[in-house]
Write a structure and sequence with these properties.
Phosphorylase Kinase, domain 1, Transferase(Phosphotransferase), domain 1, five-stranded antiparallel beta sheet, three-stranded antiparallel beta sheet, globular, binds adenosine-5'-diphosphate, binds magnesium ion
Length: about 270
């Protein structure tokens, strides 16, 4: 039976009565649409595509993933709260909190926002979630200055990352909020460039105390290059301790072990 292949809906997310949450005006036509909800001015409805045919389930990514990811981040308090869903015309209708504020793309990005986005990216990664779509249309700056990230249409479960892979991913996920020419990367590059210049000056005997004994000058250049790698690992361990300082926990993102055979382009 084909229906056996059909991924089951998540059982921890409330199934709502569609008569209580009827579709109002469309506020965004991207994707399958985001709408107001009749009689619920504080809520929005996002329509997400569900398989046309059950046999697609084998090839396509799980259609419930966006709902699941959105629900988790709503619980974590870093995305819109998800009240539940219903299925209509083979589409998932997700009912969520209307987050009031300004989209990042409508503001001048600054250090402050970047740092907040980094914290959200870190929380996501700590909870086993990668979000490939944290751009200016999906980051809302609320009136109190805090931010929420919406749109988990390209969010997936991740596991088994090393600390340095996690840090890389956090920086990558937050990249669209990064103030230009002010990145950690360019700072590090700048520092190693400067050290390299110093070392080459020393090797050419232009440093302090250019005395003949081979061993001495060698040990000097060695100790210099050591200090170079030291400064590198320092900046690394800095960001590491950052990710450590976060208390993880949340057994939220379950089914982490579930193997995902995706790859197929997402037909949204
Ligand atoms: N929970 C929300 N609160 C406020 N605005 C939202 C919310 N969800 C979506 N929007 C608005 O609708 C737009 C499209 O929603 P989004 O979830 O990003 O859909 P898409 O997958 O089409 O990009 C967003 O850029 C934002 O302007
Ligand atoms: Mg979006």
């Amino acid at each position: 039976m084909a229906s056996l292949n059909y991924p089951l809906p998540p059982d921890n997310i409330p199934l709502l009565n569609q008569n209580d949450y009827m579709k109002g005006d469309k506020i965004s036509s991207s994707g399958y649409g985001v709408h107001k909800v009749l009689n619920h001015p504080d809520k929005l409805l996002k329509i997400m595509w569900l398989f046309d045919a059950p046999q697609n389930a084998e090839d396509e990514e799980n259609p419930w993933t966006e709902l699941k990811m959105s629900y988790i981040v709503g619980e974590l308090g870093i995305g819109a709260k998800i009240y539940g869903y219903y299925v209509e015309n083979r589409n998932i209708h997700m009912i969520m909190e209307l987050v009031e504020g300004t989209l990042l793309k409508h503001t001048t990005s600054n250090e402050n926002i970047y740092n907040k986005v980094l914290v959200i990216a870190e929380t996501l990664v700590d909870n086993g979630i990668q979000n490939r779509d944290m751009n200016g249309s999906n980051i809302i700056i609320q009136n109190d200055g805090s931010i929420k990230v919406i749109d988990y249409g390209q969010a997936y479960e991740i596991s088994n990352l090393s600390d340095s892979e996690k840090n890389q991913l956090i920086i990558k996920m937050a990249r669209y909020a990064r103030p230009h020419d002010n990145s950690e990367y360019s700072l590090t590059d700048e520092m190693s460039k400067r050290l390299a210049t110093k070392i080459s000056l020393l090797n050419k005997g232009k440093g302090i105390n250019p005395l003949p004994p081979m061993s001495k000058s060698r040990s000097k250049s060695k100790s210099k290059s050591k200090s170079k790698s030291k400064s590198k690992s320092k900046s690394k361990s800095k960001s590491k301790s950052k990710s450590k300082s976060k208390s993880k926990s949340k057994s939220k993102s379950k089914s982490k072990s579930k193997s995902k055979s995706k790859s197929k382009s997402k037909s949204k």
